[in-house]
Amino acid sequence: MRGADDQPGSMFSYISPEARVPSDHPLRAIRHITDRALARLSPRFDTLYIRFGRPSIPPERLLRALLLQAIYSVRSERQLMEQLDYNILFRWFVGLGMDDPVWSATTFTKNRDRLLAGDIAQAFFEAVLIHADTERLLSDEHFTVDGTLLEAWASHKSFRPRQDDPPPTAGGGNPTVDFRGQRRTNETHQSRTDPDARLYKKARGREARLGYLGHVLMEHRSGLIVNTTVTPADGHGERDAALVMIETVPGRHRMTVAADKGYDTRDFVAGLRAMTVTPHIAQHTTGRRSALDARTTRHAGYAVSQRKRKLVEQGFGWMKTIGGLKKLRHRGGPLVTWNFTFTAAAYNIVRLRRLLPVTA
């Protein structure tokens, strides 16, 4: 018997969002990891808000919503608010009831800026690492450093001479500009859209782009990112940032650090050895002599580090294709750094879901 296509409008529902989410849904484990990290941040949240006035968006809900944006590749915060309005799964994860109103995109953005001022992204990143450390998933001896180019939300047409000059007017809102024959460098030119972005070429044969350099320090036991930083895009940023991140590792014990051929320079290797760090860097022997010799490369641990260091590309791949960092949505160094660190924390949470035992 064919059922009737009746569409009655129900006024009440007796099924909660919690009951609609399957018990084995991946977001349940992610919600558990996230809530443990947010519980550690509760005292820090108290310092960001005054104790009178109109209540704002709870910071826990704000961070859960931003986490959904990274995990589900939501393009904008306006689209995120639209999803929260009708997506029961999103409502359950954030902590909204079926009848709770959804915030406007402008209100959500203004509340997010408060977390930026409080450096909550770094605190949330560290809280997730504490969870991994308590589960004995982190090592303090073997690491990998690497960097990637983050393309800025700015066009080549915005990269104009630093002195005041009128912008091109021919062509309306998208004028035609011919750069042929012009020498454009970061010393003489600057983006009018994102002044912190710099023109940079990641490798030979590739086009130069406006962007930042994002750097990570990954440990080898479970492939989790343990430190992040963002620097202006230049030829020395990757190696300088690597030394700074390695210095933050607690203790003065012997460590190994793996990296690709771009780090195979005498200055960088000498800097590592001065910090009691064994450089397990891929040798760059094309047209020159490597800074490493057989005294380092002959050991079995060197080959292991070369295999493990490739895990860092999984992190970069997830952060760019899923986390939305292939083309930045924000402008300015502080906001880009905040977003990069928070996306790295989201990647760690997704990876922790697979590493931790399944709980009923």
* CATH level 1 name of the domain at 139-152 and 211-328: Alpha Beta
Report the uncertain regions: none
Distance between the termini: 40 Å
**What is the residue-mean pLDDT, rounded to a whole number?**
88
Give the helix/strand class. Answer: alpha/beta
**What best-fitting shape do the alpha-carbon axes yield?**
globular
Write the H/E string, N to C. HHHHHHHEEEEEEHEHEHHHH
Largest sheet entry: 6 strands, mixed
CA radius of gyration: 24 Å
Share of helix among residues? 40-55%
Overall description:
The structure is a single chain. This protein is α/β, with parallel strands linked by helices. Among the domains are: 17-118, no CATH class; 139-152 and 211-328, Nucleotidyltransferase, domain 5, CATH 3.30.420. The protein is built from 13 helices and 8 strands. The strands form 2 sheets. Strands 1, 4, 5, 6, 7 and 8 form a 6-stranded mixed beta sheet that branches. A hairpin with a 5-residue loop joins strand 5 (209-219) and strand 6 (225-232). Helix 2 packs across helix 13. The longest helix is centred in the last third of the chain and has 23 residues, at 333-355. It starts with 16 loop residues before the first helix and ends in a 5-residue tail after the last helix. The mean pLDDT is 88.
